[in-house]
Amino acid sequence: MSTILVTGGTGTLGRHVTERLRADGHEVRVLSRHARPYAVDLREGGSGLDEAVAGVDTIVHCASSPRGGDEKAARNLIPAARRAGVGHFVYISIVGVDRVPFGYYRSKLAVERLVEESGLGWTVLRATQFHDLVLSVLQGMARLPVLLLPARVKDQPVDVTEVADRLAELAQGAPAGRVDDMGGPEVRTFDSLARAYLRATGRRRAVVKVPLRGAAYDAFREGGHLAPERAVGKGTFDEYLAERFKTGVPRR
């Protein structure tokens, strides 16, 4: 069995990847800003990073933040991986990063290019939005008495554990380059997802669809972030909500 480093290994995706790899018998190191013994801020680099990657066969790079810093983190991690002789670098990206001119997507695309040009053996998987992220967005919107949604936008949420399974599978194989995208089982309008959330939580909110402006909104409206031809996920958003709120108390 091999030694695998998972960056962001305590996060929404990374912790599931870590569990899968350990269950398969691999030695897994978890790197995050607060996880000992490999507590490293990738944006800062430093000697702790070299220690974390020393003797590692594969890196699964899950660490990411919409608040920025992904490119800087990659510019520190990739040279460290080269110095350590890492044989396989696996990166999780997002469907549509090359089609939607959204700031976070641009950053993810830039990291993809850094990985491709790294000189390392590499694999990149793009996935659609996780159920957890869609729920988080809806919870934030539901703080208001009216649920304001972007008009004519669809989504294709996927179960994070299924993406973790796929990443773990890729990490245990040979470098494969850009692999097929991974999308959730259903393409749904955002208002249908919102109404499913309201039903599951017992909330009552008026749902208002608001047309927006801008190139990013236009690209989302046109489905640039979707992969209907790669609807390989199994778990639906309704199933996720049913499990997530099975012991919940209806709220107003």
From TrEMBL:
Ranges where the NAD(P)-binding domain occurs: 8-132
Entry's Gene Ontology molecular function annotations: protein-containing complex binding
Entry-linked Gene3D superfamilies: NAD(P)-binding Rossmann-like Domain (3.40.50.720)
InterPro entries documented for this protein: ComplexI_NDUFA9_subunit, NAD(P)-bd_dom, NAD(P)-bd_dom_sf
Lineage, top ranks: Bacteria, Bacillati, Actinomycetota, Actinomycetes, Kitasatosporales
The name this protein goes by in its record: Nucleoside-diphosphate sugar epimerase
A Pfam cross-reference name: NAD_binding_10
Domain of life: Bacteria
